[in-house]
Design goal:
The structure holds two protein chains of two kinds. Chain A is about 30% helix and about 25% strand. Chain A is of the alpha+beta class. A five-stranded antiparallel beta sheet of chain B has the order 5-6-7-8-9, with no helix packed on it. Chain B has a four-stranded antiparallel beta sheet with strand order 1-2-3-4, with no helix packed on it. In chain B, a hairpin with a 2-residue loop joins strand 2 and strand 3. The chains are: A alpha+beta, B mainly beta.
């Protein structure tokens, strides 16, 4: 057994706060890392200790592997939890941790590398007899090669950054018009986001649903697959609403999906938590899409329907514990809505600014990294918070979530709150008729008399000082280690 | 109080348990409404609400709608907005696709700005000519920064 008494969380925002919560519950000391822009961020106060790691730009702070490792050494952390994004899927970082004698809470560098390469992942899936989507064999690193494959497969196709993941660096090509400009833009995005402009081309299946299976595996060869999640509702390949179980997966299909996911995980020598994503066609056929070698944003829906704490399991597995999970059929239904800093009234452009008022509703789980008076910075991911509702059935979970979203106060930054409510109220969502292709028609909510009465009541209300913090002494949290 | 909402000026007055709402050139409507602590009460129900006034307007949330209502401003010279192409967000300039003197058509790509790992295409809102370009590739631009100025085609 490896000793893990102190964990450095190499992340920020809601996921860092969420990981810190479990660490506290299991009696493990937590260490936050923070950039200059995040000195007062909630993830810093959520942890027992904190250490500054550089300027606001993620490339110079949260993405700097050597700085993070140095922070772990300085604070004498036994392990690093990478969260999602940032360094979570960087095999070289996991390797560097190992070399430094620090436990990386996640899979082995080899498994990260294997699944991180879309092409190797595809080959591994084929070897594990898991069906894969028709597409390019290997990553393509010139516009001409990409163009040739696209023409060969025929539109529509999907271009994916070979080094990408989590919906970043993907571009749908629907028509052959302006094909070379579309290809160039996709490769540029890939290069900017991942430092590697090579892409894969896949036939676009439409309509298709996005269904994924949570895997949890220990160092002793035990691999468990949990209830699937459905994440078909996406905008620009970013998931918006996720739920578990999927409204269209029955017991027999669940067993097949879980079997495929386990076979792939075994073939990849996978350890710790991971997610195998599939595309599910209307006839029940499914194809392997990719494996995410980390904790997913949407993991709370799985926690609701299984009763497990996935972060706790991650730590226990990293310590070398043997997994002994019973079969866990879904218990009720859970739905998650992602609250993004974006303006649906202005083409969903990312927004930033000062959080003037913040109040969360009762009766739901909210994972967030916000505080009233804080700043939503343009430097980081626009995901502000996740709201997760549970119900004994899907409709009750849906109603609870809509009610809670309506009761949420988040002022000072444009968000997609109204859009989420409207989307959850569409007939398509209520009936579970979703696909990854197009979102249902989501009407803009019209302000009611209550809204205008509230607006009118603001006459004479005191202007909020924007972003200004009160005295730092009011917020003094725990002991901090200086940079 | 007067607010701008979706390009319309709306006046909302709350007094004696009634809300009077007047929209541009339309008849005044009256609704039953009153405030009780952090709730607003109308015949439709009791709703949690909150407001946060700023210098230029007020943030309001109630009954599922959250919005920033700008206070009306004396209108600027017509057309000016269309001539100054501003960045819709804080971000990094990825490409500049026009140069001063270029003729552009409505919808032509002027520049690409990226933020939060996504790219946004800044397109020309009208036909015209590029008067000046005030951004460069790899430059960090603020929300509202002027990227390109247009003028009528000479």
């Amino acid at each position: 057994m490896r000793r893990i008494g102190k964990v450095l969380i190499a992340n920020r925002g809601e996921i860092a706060v969420r990981v810190a919560r479990t660490l506290r519950e299991i009696g493990v000391t937590s260490v936050a890392v923070f950039s200059e822009a995040d000195r007062d961020a909630p993830h810093v106060t959520a942890c027992d200790e904190a250490i500054e790691i550089g300027p606001a730009e993620a490339a110079l702070s949260y993405l700097k592997a050597d700085t993070i490792l140095e922070a772990a050494r300085k604070t004498k952390a036994d392990a690093i939890h990478p969260g999602y994004g940032f360094l979570s899927e960087r095999a070289d970082f996991a390797e560097a941790c190992e070399a430094a004698g620090i436990v990386f809470i996640g899979p082995s560098p080899g498994a990260i590398r294997l699944m991180g390469s879309k092409n190797d992942a595809r080959i591994t899936a084929e070897e594990a007899l898991v069906p894969v989507v028709p597409g390019s064999r290997g990553a393509l690193d010139s516009d001409d090669e990409v163009l040739a494959v696209v023409k060969d497969l025929g539109v529509p196709v999907m271009l994916k950054a070979a080094a990408g993941g989590g919906g970043k660096g993907m571009r749908r090509i629907e028509s052959a018009d302006g094909l070379s400009e579309q290809v160039a833009a996709a490769r540029r995005e890939a290069k900017a986001a991942f430092g590697d402009g090579s892409v894969l081309v896949e036939k676009l299946l439409d309509p298709v649903r996005h269904v994924e299976v949570q895997i949890i595996a220990d160092h002793h060869g035990n691999v468990h697959a949990l209830v699937e999640r459905e994440c078909s509702l996406q905008r620009r390949f970013q998931k918006i609403i996720e739920e578990s179980p999927s409204p269209v997966v029955d017991g027999a299909l669940r067993e097949k999906l879980q079997h495929s996911a386990c076979e792939l995980a075994r073939r990849a020598g996978y350890v710790n938590a991971g997610t195998v994503e599939f595309l599910l066609c209307p006839d029940g056929s499914y194809y392997f899409l990719e494996m995410n070698t980390r904790l997913q944003v949407e993991h709370p829906v799985t926690e609701f329907v299984t009763g497990l704490d996935l972060v706790r399991l991650q730590v226990e597995i990293a310590r070398g514990a043997k997994l002994d999970l019973p079969d866990l059929p879904p218990r009720g239904h859970a739905i998650e809505a992602r609250i993004y800093a974006e303006n649906p009234e202005a083409g969903f452009l990312p927004t930033s600014g000062d959080l003037l008022r913040l109040a969360w509703p009762e009766g739901v789980r909210v994972d967030h990294g916000l505080r009233e008076g804080g700043v939503v910075s343009p430097h980081y991911d626009p995901l502000l918070a996740k709201m997760i509702a549970w119900g004994p059935d899907r409709e009750q979970a849906r109603r609870r979530l809509v009610g809670a979203l309506r009761d949420t106060v988040l002022l000072g930054v444009h968000t997609n709150l109204g859009f989420l409510i409207s989307l959850l109220e569409t007939e398509e969502f209520r009936e579970g008729k979703m696909s990854t292709g197009a979102l249902p028609d989501v009407p803009l909510l019209e302000p009611s008399a209550a809204f205008w009465a509230a607006a009118a009541s603001s006459r004479g209300a005191k202007q909020r000082k924007s972003g200004a913090s009160v005295s730092p002494w009011d917020r003094i949290g725990r002991w901090r280690v200086g940079p | 109080m007067k607010f701008v909402w979706r390009n319309e000026i709306i006046e909302a007055v709350l007094e004696n348990g009634e809300l009077h709402l007047s929209r541009d050139g339309r008849e005044r409507e009256t609704f039953e409404a009153r405030i009780d602590g952090d709730r607003v009460i109308t015949p439709a129900g009791r709703f949690r609400f909150a407001v946060a006034p700023t210098r230029d307007g007020v943030w309001v949330t109630a009954e599922g709608v959250t919005a920033f209502l700008e206070y009306p401003k004396p209108t600027a010279a017509a057309g000016a907005a269309n001539d100054e192409i501003r960045s819709p967000m804080t971000g990094n300039v990825v490409s500049v696709n026009v140069a001063p003197g270029d003729a552009v058509k409505e919808g032509d790509l002027l520049a690409v700005v990226s933020a939060m790992k996504m790219e946004f295409r800044i397109e020309s809102p009208r036909d015209g000519e590029v008067e000046s370009v005030s951004c460069a590739v790899d430059q960090l631009v603020d929300l509202g920064a002027i990227l390109v100025r247009l003028k009528d085609r000479s």
